């Protein structure tokens, strides 16, 4: 079984996949619930995250 080191854990937590996936699911859930403002807010958060250089 591979050992989980601090560097490996930090890299896994800072990968852009986790926040982008969470925001995409939020956008889909908001769209399904017909919550237009929340849907656009989550899409804007994804765009801001991408443009901030975090990705």
Key traits:
mainly alpha, 55 residues, 3 helices, 75% helix, 0% strand
Report on this structure.
This protein is mainly alpha-helical and 55 residues long. The protein has a domain at 15-51. The protein contains 3 helices and no strands. The protein has helices at 6-14, 17-32, 36-51. α2 (17-32) packs antiparallel against α3. 4% of the residues are buried.
Question: What is the 3D form?
Answer: elongated
Distance between the termini: 30 Å
Total beta-strand segments: 0
Given as residue ranges, the uncertain stretches (5+ residues, pLDDT < 50) are none
Summarize model confidence as the mean pLDDT.
78
Could you describe the largest sheet, including whether it forms a barrel?
Answer: none
SSE series: HHH
The assigned structural class equals mainly alpha
Sheet-strand content, in percent, reads under 5%
- The helix fraction, in percent, is over 70%
Oligomer: single chain
Provide a count of the helices: 3
Spatial extent as radius of gyration = 15 Å
Give a brief outline of the structure.
With 55 residues, this protein is an all-alpha fold. The protein has helices at 6-14, 17-32, 36-51.
Mind sketching the topology for me?
Layout: H1 6-14, H2 17-32, H3 36-51
Helix pairs in contact: 2-3
């Amino acid at each position: 079984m591979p050992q989980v080191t601090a560097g490996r854990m930090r890299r896994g937590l800072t990968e852009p996949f986790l926040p982008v996936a969470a925001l995409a699911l939020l956008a889909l859930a908001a769209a399904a619930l017909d919550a237009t403002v929340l849907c656009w807010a989550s899409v804007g958060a994804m765009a801001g995250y991408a443009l901030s250089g975090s990705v």
